[in-house]
Amino acid sequence: MHNLYERSQITSEKLTTLETFSLNLQAAIAQLQRQQEPEKKPNRTLVNKYPELKVNVSLKEIRHADLHADQSLIHPLFFEFCCINQALKRADRIKLLCEVEPLETGEPFELCEQKQVWHPNWKGHVDDEINAVFIQEIAMRLWNNEKVKCAGTGQIPDGAYAIGTISDCVKSYFRNVHKQYLELNDDEKAEKALRCKTNSKHRARRQTVTKARRKAAKAFKSQASQGAMAMIDTDFASDVLSYASDGDLSDNTIQRQKDAGIGDSAFMVEGSEWRSVDYVAFLRWLTFKSKNESEEGDEVNDWPPSKRRKVTQKKKQSKLIFDLAPSKMNEDPPISHKKTNPTVPFKSMVSAKWLKTHPDMVLLDGGEWLSGFYGTVSEKDVYKQDWTYLKELDGWQKMADDAGSESDVE
Phi and psi of 44, rounded to 5°? Predict the structure, then answer.
């Protein structure tokens, strides 16, 4: 009996040793397989495949038309885990989120009134230890929240209900916050982000004006003019600028604002030095024409005007923007931002002074009808403010051209 007991003990020890060896062998094989597999790059667009998990966390004013706040799943958990009041405005919430700093102890969270308050490292990498725990915890919360809901009432589709998919989506939003954190705490990146946002606003304003002008130019195109539509390009339109207060403006600019008869904080228009007065007059004429067509009905397509109540008082035509002085026009050359088939201006669109100082500039022939267009425009064909500005611009360009001719003679 004694020998039998010893044999059973030896056999048990051997089985334990064999099981341990088998587990170690399996772990070694798995590690070897992972090393041999190609490195998997993070799928940063995976979240776009599952909009139910998606929400915008950008500080920029980007709107997502297909999603509402109550449909988001990931974003609210970022605020909840970091103990940020979700009743605040979105920009304020995100700013507070980016102000969360990692704990000095190196722990991923701290206990405040028996509640976990997480402190991820937004500056760090998404796979850092603290951030990995934070991401995994949010992914598991989403997983469990969906799991406890009754059948058929879940918000995550079957294709997205996988812990790996959810984790990748959470990582995508962590990277978004990481980007916003860097923009807020790095002066160079903050300046770059602000410049990008400002340029986007300026371009959006130019696009709005250009769209209205192109619509008004359809009738003009059929009447006479070769290349009329090609001349109306977003990249060739004036910049419509804003300012914080009148204190940011010079005395001359403030006086121009008063002369235009518009209120404070109105947008101001900055022209381009390369454009001829004929081209500017053509654009201003189209602006006035587009406004009249929108009020009187679509005359381009010969549609009957809609029925309206008769009024005795004619609506006053005015603009809510004012022009900067011609001497303050930007000196940048015309640049088309189209990646394919960039727009090249016609020679008739460019001022005489610019042609003299930039003889190597690439221009297109054609559009001769534009030359002298300003002389065909009367005061009733444009806004009052535009008529005043066109006369001023014409005088300024003639003076600049005469000054250039005198310097050539000398």
Answer: -80, -10
Q: Which residue, chain included where needed, has tokens 């009432």? A: 153
Structure tokens at 158: 């079957």
d(CA 106, CA 113) in angstroms, rounded, equals: 20
Length of the chain as a residue count: 410
CB proximity list for 287: less than 8 A, separation 6 or greater: 209, 212, 213, 216, 382, 383, 386
- Residue 239 one-letter amino acid: D
Angle, helices 74-81 vs 129-148, to 10°: value is 120
Tell me which H or E stretch contains 215. helix 187-223
* Predicted local confidence at residue 377, as pLDDT: 92
Q: Please, are residues 370 and 282 in contact by the beta-carbon 8 Å criterion?
A: yes
How far is residue 272 from each of residues 243, 279, 329, 388, 393, measured CA to CA in Å? 19, 11, 5, 17, 11
Both tokens assigned to 198: 């400002």
DSSP secondary structure letter of residue 333: P
Picking from 380, 354, 218, 357, the residue whose alpha carbon sits closest to that of residue 279 is: 354
- C-beta of residue 268 within 8 angstroms of C-beta of residue 323: yes
Q: Closest Cα to residue 281, out of 365, 213, 342, 332?
A: 213
Supply the pLDDT for residue 16.
63
- By 3-state DSSP, what share of the chain in percent is helix, strand and coil, each rounded to 5? 55, 5, 40
Asked if the model's pLDDT at residue 71 lies above 70, the reply is: no
The type of residue at 278 is: D
pLDDT digits (tens, 9 = 90+) for 203-212: 888 888 889 8
Residue 347 · residue 364 · CB < 8 Å: yes
Between CA 317 and CA 392 the distance in angstroms is 20
Q: How far is CA 110 from the centre of its chain?
A: 37
